[in-house]
UniProtKB/TrEMBL annotation:
Keyword Coiled coil annotated: yes
Domain GGDEF: 488-618
Pfam families: dCache_1 (PF02743), GGDEF (PF00990), HAMP (PF00672)
InterPro entries, A to Z: dCache_1, Diguanylate_Cyclase, GGDEF_dom, HAMP_dom, Nucleotide_cyclase, Rev_trsase/Diguanyl_cyclase
Enzyme Commission identifier(s): 2.7.7.65
Name this polypeptide is given: diguanylate cyclase
This protein's UniProt keywords: Cell membrane, Coiled coil, Membrane, Transmembrane, Transmembrane helix
Record localization: Cell membrane
Domain of life according to the entry: Bacteria
């Protein structure tokens, strides 16, 4: 029987195909079925790990940016005692830091008499100033103010506030380095919780002048947690070691009357069921002397209200021996419904494929081998001298072509050669046509590339040009300014249109827009090659001028004043003479606070009558990086 099997090619092909399908499909199906649960948990773990990494890095970004502010203070340490004694200088410094560090919600200074001066903003960029009325402990008022901390309308007041009694103030006095506080309610809004990085300010005699504070509110953290949710019904929470929910994407976990929700509360939802499992896992890891916070991360399935859930948690260090846990959990049905359905479908499809492969393998073997057997029989008869034997042609596929070629092999060699020659000519023609099509395609690609280049230039202009005035916007101007001051001396001019609000109120916003356009064109007409102008605020503009001395800068400001005076804005037969106040300072490599100095000069110009320029001619060498 084995000898007959070795001579039967059809049976061998059919048997080999069947065995190959069985050996391939059955192990794959069994492996998929038995490992599906493990694969599913690994998939969920990778999804949660990615979300956890996102939160981890975002927290690092929040906290590191706060530390960077205090790192920068080392460079201007000699000026800080003077700055905190002058309210205007302190507001300028607070607003400058706040406008360059967007993850910080509040920046403030509390003096050693209990007074507080604070500047902050929310996610909609509404700025708030908190200020003690008498400069010491006493009434504290909240003002809605501009981005620079100036002006404002009182929105709330607390009868008595003493910064010295606050936990962040007391912590700062115990260390010479910045130190994180515990979560605490806000001075005005008790439901707004935040965490503070505070640092004591000391004079040259090591006496306490006051305490700096940087706040990150839970609103900022919660917005990032909501973005990191792996599914619609998932919850992402930060929990301290005492089981208090510091921040959560679930609104049920929000603080109530300035108090954090505990995991044992009825409002904690599924987290209350999960928390004992987390504590048990932490104890097991600490018993094995494994103190690496990232090694404590794990995926933990659990049941809540009769439904399967899955969770993932890890630790984030706030400081020495101070950690909080990042906890993510979701209903299992949110994450893997399609996976379970695909598993069952895969098993069914595997069995169906085995049956189909066996059936069509048998048909295919018979279809292939039948004409081969016929060719073998006729060839054997011809070899025996039966020249009149011909192969019966009954197929048009590849095997049929072989049969025809066998019959006509000796009589159609010449015809075959001619056909080959014709095929060669056709190939040349097709190659020529293909080259022409390639040239056309290359021309289309070149045209399309040029269109994309033009579109990219237009997009870049939209990103860097102020659409109203046609000059550089705030972002593009400061990028150019940063590049210019790296290795070149020059001047920074801050210009603010005088009485612009009254112009808007009297003539309307359309006239106000025309005034901004007219002002930008008038200033541009006065600039030399290499100078550039940008709109950095509503009616505030900035100019960078390179290679001038103080007298030349004075001439530039006089040209601007003259241009505005001689070319008034004409609206409906009404001539409007636009005036401006200018503050200027010299800038160079290593000089810090150029904007703050120029803004201070602008403030002097405004305060002393407007329509004038105040130029700071000192280089301020004490601000250079050593």
């Amino acid at each position: 029987m084995l000898r007959q099997l070795s001579k039967n090619l059809g049976l061998r092909i059919q048997l080999i195909l069947t065995l190959l399908v069985l050996l391939t499909a059955i192990p794959i199906g069994l492996l998929w079925y038995h490992s599906s649960e493990q694969v599913r948990l690994q998939t969920i773990e990778r999804l949660y790990h990615h979300s956890s990494e996102t939160i981890y890095h975002q927290l690092d970004s929040f906290f590191s940016e706060a530390r960077d502010v205090y790192q920068h203070q080392k460079k201007i340490a000699a000026d800080l005692p003077t700055i905190v004694q002058d309210r205007d200088k302190l507001i300028v410094y607070l607003s400058n830091v706040l406008n360059h560090h967007f993850t910080i919600d509040y920046f403030y200074f509390a003096n050693n008499e209990g007074g507080l001066l604070s500047l902050g903003h929310d996610w909609d960029k509404h700025f708030t100033r908190l200020e003690s009325e008498n400069g010491g402990a006493g009434p504290l008022t909240s003002y809605q103010t501009l981005h620079n901390g100036r002006g404002g309308v009182a929105t709330a007041t607390t009868e008595h506030f003493d910064a010295r009694t606050r936990e962040w103030y007391q912590r700062a006095l115990t260390s010479n380095k910045p130190i994180w506080s515990d979560l605490y309610p806000g001075a005005i809004d008790q439901n707004q919780l935040g965490i503070t990085l505070s640092k004591a300010l000391r004079d040259e005699n090591n006496q306490i002048v006051g305490v700096w504070g940087l706040d990150i509110t839970l609103t900022s953290v919660v917005n990032e947690l909501i973005k990191a949710k792996p599914s619609e019904n998932s919850t992402v929470a930060l929990v301290n070691e005492a089981g208090q929910i510091l921040a959560s994407s679930n609104p049920l976990h929000s603080p109530q009357q300035g108090q954090l929700i505990n995991v044992s509360s009825s409002q904690s939802h599924a987290l209350g069921k999960l928390w004992p499992l987390i504590k048990q896992h932490d104890n097991q890891n600490h018993n094995t002397a494994n103190n690496n916070a990232r090694s404590l991360e794990t995926t933990q399935p659990f049941t809540f209200q009769g439904h399967p859930w899955v969770s993932y948690y890890t630790e984030y260090p706030l400081g020495p021996k101070r950690n909080m846990r990042i906890v993510l959990y979701s209903p299992l049905s949110d994450l893997t419904p399609g996976f379970l359905q695909a598993k069952h479908y895969a098993i069914i499809i595997t069995m169906l494929m085995i049956a189909l492969a066996t059936y069509y393998g048998s048909l295919g073997t018979r279809y292939i081998l039948t004409p081969i057997r016929q060719l073998t029989k006729i060839a054997e008869e011809i070899s025996q001298g039966k020249w009149d034997k011909k192969i019966t042609v009954d197929r048009d596929d590849e095997v049929g072509q072989l049969e025809k070629s066998f019959n006509k092999m000796t009589t159609h060699i010449e015809s075959t050669i001619r056909q080959l020659d014709q095929q060669q000519q056709e190939t040349k023609r097709l190659n020529t046509l293909l080259e022409e099509q390639n040239l056309q395609l290359e021309e289309r690609v070149r045209a399309r590339t040029e269109e994309l280049s033009i579109a990219n230039r237009q997009l870049r202009e939209l990103a860097y040009i102020d659409p109203l005035t046609g000059i550089a916007n705030r972002r593009h101007f400061w990028e150019q300014f940063e590049l210019s001051t790296k290795d070149t001396d020059g001047w920074l001019l801050i210009l603010d249109i005088d009485n612009f609000k009254q112009l808007n109120d009297h003539f309307g916003h359309v006239t106000g827009d025309l005034a901004l356009q007219h002002f930008a064109k008038s200033c541009q007409s006065c600039l030399a090659d290499g100078d550039y102008i940008g709109r950095i605020g509503g009616e505030e503009f900035a100019i960078w001028s390179e290679g001038r001395n103080a007298e030349q800068v004075r001439q530039l400001t006089d040209q601007i004043f003259e241009s505005l005076e001689k070319s008034p804005l004409t609206v409906q037969d009404t001539s409007i003479v636009i005036t401006t106040s200018i503050g200027a300072t010299r800038c160079g490599p290593g000089k810090l606070s150029c904007y703050a100095i120029a803004d201070r000069m602008l403030y002097k110009a405004k305060r002393t009558g407007k329509n004038k320029a105040v130029i700071d001619t000192q280089f301020h060498s004490e601000n250079l990086v050593q």
